[in-house]
Amino acid sequence: MFKNELNKPIIIVEELTKIYKMDSLELKALSNVSFNVYPGEFVSVMGPSGSGKSTLMNLLGCLDTPTSGRYFLDQQDVSKLKDNTLAAFRNKKIGFVFQNFNLLPKLDAFQNVELPLIYAGVSRAERNEIVKKLLKKVGLEDRIHHRPNQLSGGQTQRVAIARALVNNPSIILADEPTGNLDTHSGEEIMQIFQTLNDEGITIILVTHEHDISLHTKRIIHFRDGQLVGDEKIKNPVRAEDILQDFAKQKEKQELEEIQLSPKK
Ligand SMILES: Nc1ncnc2c1ncn2[C@@H]1O[C@H](COP(=O)(O)OP(=O)(O)O)[C@@H](O)[C@H]1O
Ligand SMILES: [Mg+2]
Question: What is the CATH number of the domain that holds 121?
Answer without folding.
Answer: 3.40.50.300
